[in-house]
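Mods, move this if it's the wrong board.
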Amino acid sequence: MGWRIKKIIAYQIISLITVQDNFMITRDEVRQIAVLARIGLDEKELEKYSKDLSSILDWVKQLEEVDISGIEPTAHIAGLENVDREDKISDFENKDGIVKLFPESKDGYDKVKSVL
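Not the wrong board. C-alpha cells:
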C-alpha cells in the first residue's frame, strides 16, 4: 500500500476521532476506509471491523484522559542517540582500480549496466 493511501486512511481515522464524542464507527465509515485502503470487505466483516475500530477509538479516548503534564516526550525508551561523524573530503587511493571494473567507457563517462 502506498504512502499516499496510508496518509488518507490516517486522516480519515483522525477525522473520526476529532469530530465525534461517541466513537461508534458506522459500517459506511468502515466501507469508506476499506475503499481508500483498497480492501474488499463483505457485510459480516464490515460489522466486525465497525465494532473493533470503535473499541480501539474508545481506548484512545481513555488514553487522552491520562495526565501527562509532567512527562517529557520521548521517541524511544533506550536513550540511544545517533553518533555522527564529520564529513571530510579525502582522496580515494584506488581510483584507477575501481575505474578498471567498469565494463565500458564512452565520451569520458564510465558506463554500467542498467539497475532497473
